[in-house]
Amino acid sequence: MKYSKVKTLSSSQFKRLIGIQPSTFLEMLEVLKINQANTRRGRPSSLLLEDQLLMTLSYWREYRTLFHVAMSYGLHESSASRIIQKIENILIKSDKFHLPKKLPHDEGLDWDVVIVDATEMVIERPKKTEKVL
């Protein structure tokens, strides 16, 4: 789904669909725009910066394969991968969107945390051996 359609949603619908508040999305977008203004290299992407961020967030939220995410945005799988890695690196370097290092411990707070690593990895397969007749 393109950002032009998503931006018309209410705040609660936006958060429900994307996983973050619209204000956080705009902060992320501002960081990306500043970075884009400072580094102008290579061929520009066919996707708007807003759509690139939206694609990255949907990839993180929905745990779909890169192939499915790329098809949703009309890209090749490798292009989607490059865009997502670029957006991830820019957001990480900004130091604005980190999770807290230590969880707060107050009375009444019980933290049960489950972490799921959904990183796509290259599968190493054994090499085929040739049959000798």
Give a written overview of the molecule:
This protein has 133 residues and is mainly alpha-helical. The protein has a domain at 3-94. The chain is 52% helix and 0% strand. It has 6 helices and no strands. Helix 4 packs across helix 6 (77-94). The chain is globular, with a radius of gyration of 19 Å. The mean pLDDT is 84.
Summarize it.
This protein has 133 residues and is mainly alpha-helical. It contains six helices and no strands.
Keywords:
133 residues; mainly alpha; 6 helices; 52% helix; globular
Low-pLDDT residue intervals, each spanning 5 or more residues: none
Largest sheet: none
Number of strands: 0
Briefly note the structural class of the backbone.
mainly alpha
In percent terms, what proportion of residues is strand? under 5%
Q: Count of helices? A: 6
H and E order: HHHHHH
Gap from first CA to last CA: 55 Å
Dominant shape: globular
Helix content: 40-55%
Overall pLDDT confidence: 84
Task: Outline the fold blueprint.
Blueprint: H1 3-6, H2 11-18, H3 22-38, H4 49-62, H5 66-73, H6 77-94
Helix pairs in contact: 3-6, 4-5, 4-6, 5-6
